[in-house]
Amino acid sequence: MAVSIISPDAAPAIGDVRALGERDLIILATRARERRDWTRYMDAIGVAVTRGARLIDADEGAE
């Protein structure tokens, strides 16, 4: 299981996020959407979730 944390000032490579899948976890830290490259990460997260990755959003307080 891989765990990727995306925050306003640090994140794994977009390609690494895109490659995540079943049994992997993506954590969006508070204010992660403030990143300049947020739309690119949003696309990569969508691919990973479609492949089975779980997403936890700290701003929402729920999955």
Summarize the structure in words.
The chain has 63 residues and is an alpha/beta fold. Helices cover 29% and strands 19% of the residues. It has two helices and three strands, in the order E-H-E-H-E. A three-stranded parallel β-sheet has the order 1-2-3, with helices on one face. The mean pLDDT is 94.
Q: What's a concise summary of this model?
A:
This protein is an alpha/beta fold.
Question: Which secondary structure elements does this structure contain, and how are they paired or packed?
Answer:
Elements: E1 3-6, H1 14-18, E2 25-28, H2 38-50, E3 54-57
Parallel strand pairs: 1-2, 2-3
Tag the structure with descriptive keywords.
63 residues, alpha/beta, 3-stranded parallel β-sheet, 29% helix
Radius of gyration: 10 Å
* Unreliable spans: none
> What is the strand arrangement across the widest sheet?
1-2-3
Q: Indicate the mean pLDDT.
A: 94
Question: Could you describe the largest sheet, including whether it forms a barrel?
Answer: 3 strands, parallel
Class computed from helices, strands and strand pairing: alpha/beta
Portion in beta strands: 15-25%
Note the gap between the termini. Answer: 17 Å
Number of strands: 3
Task: Kindly state the percentage of residues in helix.
Answer: 25-40%
Shape: globular
Total DSSP helices: 2
